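Researcher: Good morning. I'm working through a list of sequences from a screen, and I'd like to move beyond sequence-only analysis. For each chain I'm collecting a predicted structure so we can compare shapes side by side. This is the next one on the list. No need for commentary yet; just the structure.
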Amino acid sequence: MSLTIVPGVPDRLPDMARLLSSALQREIPLRRLRRKYLSDGDAGRGQAHLLIDGGRAVGVAGYTLCRYVLPDGAVVTAAQYGDFALLPEYRGTGVFGDLCQNIHQTICERGAAFSFALTSEGSRAVMTRALNHQPMQDLHCFDIPLTSRSHLPVRVLDRARRSFGWRGAAVERAPSAFRTADSGHAERGDRFVSARRVAGIRFLEIEGHDVMIRPGSVSNVALPGDIDPAAVPGVLDALGRRARRAGTRVLRLMLTNDEPAFAHVDRIAGPAPGQLTYCARDISTGLDMARLRFGFADYENF
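Model: Good morning. Structure tokens for this chain:
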């Protein structure tokens, strides 16, 4: 077995799509990989490395560089791992660890202060064993579908966001609900303070509650830590109506199981990827690793 590691280039995108589709058991469209690894768009600072055996791609792993805003407002360069896949016959041979170490060396050379990933059960072992990442927090990912229509073209979504614009959504300071520790989530308050420094994130007043959202076709949403659980269904319903008018198809929330909103969201939402684990590794040394999960990755201004 003679293996080489090469950076993913345009003519290798079909190989990447094939590997990832096989690993995830669902089709990965080429346009997603082009946008992520070849464009200068939302996640266009990425690079994938391929494991090649006899001219055939047998494994892939990728990363995306981003501007990461820490809870205290400091900004560092970080690398988010993703898109892992390896053909079954190569598993257990140690070659995937070599591929991951190659990527780790690359991101060190590019000045990343730390690396992180949201891992499923399958990829968690890669991050903890091959890349020495520390599990930081378990999260449950929920999707609330707003429409059964097919995906709208990105240009249509962009026009809708400009038209509806989430007007009046931005605030000049973090809402007070996100700065208090009434619910025991003091560090969660820091997360919302850092969020206001990231492009694309907005605070909306919904049913008297300040809700954080990153608008898009799939809009990431975070509710204040001290929200009354009984208010959650009404807030999400009102937010959904507004988001649907702006072109959003799905509201996505990531919650720990001790958050007040968890039980109510669990009843009304359908699961997305399920349980994820936030894993991170310090590269520069000196970072407070326990608080990294309360920062925000900003891909737009990298």
